[in-house]
Specification:
Elements lengths: L3 E9 L7 H18 L9 E6 L2 E9 L6 E9 H4 L8 H9 L7 H6 L2 E3 L6 E8 L4 H14 L7 E4 L11 E4 L3 E8 L2 E2 L3 E2 L2 E2 L3 E2 L11 E2 L6 H9 L5 H19 L4 E2 L3 H8 L6 E6 L9 H12 L2 E4 L5 E9 L7 H25 L15 E3 L3 E2 H21 L7 H10 L7 H5 L6 H9 L4 H9 L14 H20 L13 H14 L6 H8 L11 H18 L4 H8 L9 H12 L4 H17 L15 H22 L3 H8 L3 H10 L7 H18 L11
Antiparallel strand pairs: 1-3, 1-9, 2-3, 4-6, 5-6, 7-8, 9-10, 11-12, 13-14, 15-17, 16-18, 17-18, 19-20
Helix pairs in contact: 1-5, 7-8, 9-10, 11-12, 11-16, 12-15, 12-16, 14-15, 15-16, 16-17, 17-19, 18-19, 19-20, 20-21, 21-24, 22-26, 23-24, 23-25, 23-26
């Protein structure tokens, strides 16, 4: 029997644009998996997903009309349960066989047909049967039902079935949008499946306004996309439409001249792709006077509200022209262009009005108003929060200035922290919350504040996501650290912790932001002290959760380091010591990796683990090493080697050369091995035992300053 290619299409009303790609991929993926599971599609089959605003479809190659019959062996029950002492079938066995469709009219013959495997109590009965392969009619129905049931629908709606359905007006169904058509073609043959009150056929609908014919008749499964484009003016493939939009955007910008570039946005591109059936990019413009408004405001309103693509010059400055992806292609596009220009103008005028109004009040005059905005019922208002951020920022600045870090000025830090949240009270941020911080920077400059403070206000939310840039100056770094620490310490202090995939206050993101700033800026700050210094700002509003928050930081750091390519062993070895200066962690990891590559590494790691176990069992028994009490040659040699090696390793450690420090200690392998081969640590003489434990304790401390090397032991 030969195979044919299969097409399934569900035609619906306009689907949610932000969910369309996921819906299309899920529909095709589940349908394909179900066909493969039933043996109707094989290893040489492939699936192609289609998704447009009004349809979900899948094209599957090499689909059988009927799956092959399959020999199946099924374990029934233990031998002792299925057969009595005389070897006859028990009622339980006969009942099981009957349920499987076996002939039990002759119990002896039925038992004889069974297979026995295993010995003693493990012996069991097995039943061989031939399962009839699924037909495409039944198999596709099952696959279609499963594909619809597993769609990642953001929100369902209920609607009555159409008038040409079996029970019009009496039944309703639930789906993401009302469905109006179903196509199922195996080659050129319709497969009579049903879904959502619809029966499959070979016709679909094209573009609402530009289809050449209606309905569009599909002759076979293989010419689906070609027929829809020719007769229906629909580009059915999501990826093809996306590619066409990207090409048209680039061509439109090129026609305007070399000074124009499209401000691409992947999420917007996906959304626009889901809004049009056959894209047509048009060039529009607006009055140049609107360019006096901060370009972030104009870009956001064009992208978020109108789904337009802004055009910038080669320096990244916004121009007064933009691109529209239209769903229609009239011969004269002037009406479409004019309509879009009229629509965007009020939006830009609103942004200009908000900007002009906001500048009538200084940021400083808005500070008092923060006291009327609730932040959290247990943590008070935004005003109280700003005071805490300021106090924490000043303390961080003090710690950095003590360490001689350049670019930190207490006055700038305090002022920026006090004003950082005031733009929350502006009209612009009220309309566009995404601009918080950014607008604060603009208004700070308008108020005559320094660039240092303006940048800090603008950047104090950074990094906002993975890969985002860090604040541009040290004032911004300090305020950003303070802002994130205030959130973390406050939420941990009231027990509001993230659970599973729920993290409403983005505590994981805040922790990773703190880690990135400490690491990438190589700040000389002690993590434990940094967290503890934020607690007093809360007074009696919280309980001290410093320890649990510190562990939260190390958990986030461990995950981040593994994502960067370090092994779990390497990360575990370094973080086991809970290093307080996070800027040193990468150097420690590189040192551990270099050490692990040495021939002596495995033996020293194993010895280190052994030493750790000995010291745990003998806690408190060690003493200061007295050279006169060293009796065995091996312990004398180890002591001498340590006198020579450890000071050099300590000096290298103090200079931050962790790799050299571990390399120096690697020379101790031979005397360490000799010590364990020839010396009894738990000697009967208590003084001798204490002296040897002291020697091991000194060795253990020396070897584990960079990382816990025992974690490298297999």
């Amino acid at each position: 029997m030969t195979t044919q290619n299969l097409l399934v299409e569900l035609f619906v009303e306009e689907l949610p644009p932000k969910a369309l790609k996921k819906l299309g991929d899920a529909f095709a993926g589940v349908l394909f998996d179900q066909l493969k599971a039933q043996g109707l599609a094989g290893a040489d089959s492939a699936v192609t997903a289609f998704a447009s605003p009004r349809r979900l479809a899948a094209h599957v190659t090499h689909v059988w009309l009927k799956a092959e019959d399959k020999a199946v062996q099924q374990k029934l029950m233990p031998l002792a349960v299925g057969l009595d002492a005389s070897g006859n079938a028990t009622p339980a066995l006969l009942k099981k066989l009957a349920a499987l469709g076996a002939d039990v009219s002759d119990p002896a013959a039925a038992v004889a047909a069974l297979k026995r495997e295993g010995e003693g109590k493990a012996a069991a009965l097995f039943y061989d049967s031939l399962v009839t392969g699924a037909t495409l009619d039944t198999g596709l129905q099952k696959a279609l039902d499963e594909a619809l049931a597993k769609l990642p629908i953001p929100k369902v709606m209920s609607y009555q079935l159409e008038s040409d359905c079996e029970f019009p007006g009496w039944s309703s169904v639930q789906f993401v949008r009302p469905a109006h058509g179903l196509v199922a073609l195996h080659g050129s043959t319709v497969v009579p499946v049903r879904a959502l009150g619809l029966t499959a056929g070979n016709t679909t609908r094209g573009h609402r306004f530009e289809a050449a014919v209606d309905p569009v008749v599909l002759q076979d499964a293989d010419h689906y996309a070609e027929t829809l484009l020719r007769d229906g003016s629909v580009l059915a493939s999501f990826n093809d439409r996306r590619f066409a939009i990207v090409q048209q955007l680039a061509q439109a910008a090129e026609r305007l001249g070399p000074g124009f570039e499209v401000l691409m946005d992947e999420a917007l591109l996906d959304e626009v792709t889901a809004l049009v059936e056959r894209p047509n990019v048009l060039t529009c413009g607006f009055e140049a006077q609107f360019l006096d408004v901060p370009q972030e405001c104009l870009i956001l309103t064009m992208k978020a509200n109108q789904k337009y693509f802004p055009l910038v010059d080669t320096q990244g400055k916004l121009t007064n022209q933009f691109l529209v992806v239209s769903n229609i292609s009239p011969e004269d596009a002037s009406a479409v262009i004019g309509g879009n220009e009229r629509v965007v103008r009020p939006r830009l005028a609103d942004a200009k009005f908000f900007f002009d109004q906001d500048r009538k009040k200084t940021l400083a005059s808005r500070v008092e108003g923060l006291g009327k905005v609730v932040y959290h019922n247990k943590l008070g208002t935004q005003g109280e929060r700003s005071q805490r951020v300021e106090a924490i920022a000043r303390e961080i600045a003090r710690q950095l200035m003590t360490q001689g870090v350049d670019g930190v000025f207490d006055g700038n830090v305090g002022n920026a922290a006090m004003l950082a949240k005031t733009d929350l009270l502006t009209d612009m941020v009220g309309e566009f919350p995404e601009l918080q911080g950014i607008m604060g920077g603009y208004y700070a400059r308008h108020d005559g504040l320094s660039e240092d403070i303006a940048f800090a206000i603008e950047d104090h939310y950074k990094p906002r996501f993975a890969g985002d840039e860090l604040p541009r100056n040290m004032t911004g770094v300090v305020v950003a650290l303070a802002d994130k620490l205030e959130t973390l310490v406050g939420m941990f202090g009231i027990g509001n912790l993230p659970t599973g995939d729920k993290d409403p206050f983005a505590l994981r993101r805040h922790a990773l932001g703190v880690i990135r700033m400490l690491v990438e800026k190589d700040l000389p700050l002690n993590l434990g002290a940094l967290v503890a210094s934020a607690v007093p700002a809360f007074g009696d509003k919280i309980t001290d959760a410093t320890a649990s928050l510190a562990e939260f930081f190390y958990d986030r750091l461990a995950g981040s380091l593994r994502e960067q390519g370090y092994s779990a062993q390497e990360v575990d070895a370094v973080l086991a010591l809970r290093p307080q200066r996070l800027g040193d962690v990468s150097k420690r990891l590189q040192a551990v990796r270099a050490f692990a590559a040495l021939p002596a590494a495995a033996a020293l790691a194993a010895a280190n683990k052994r030493i750790g176990n000995i010291l745990k069992k003998s806690e408190g028994e060690g003493a200061a090493v007295q050279e006169a009490r060293l009796v065995e040659a091996a312990e004398k040699e180890l002591f001498a080697a340590m006198k020579k090696t450890v000071p050099a390793a300590d000096a290298e450690f103090a200079n931050g050369d962790y790799t050299a420090s571990l390399m120096t200690l690697a020379a101790l392998r031979a005397p360490v091995d000799a010590f364990f081969d020839g010396v009894m640590v738990n000697a009967e003489d208590p003084a001798l035992k204490a002296n040897r434990l002291g020697l091991l304790k000194n060795l253990h401390e020396a070897m584990n300053r960079v990382a816990d090397l025992s974690r490298l032991a297999a």
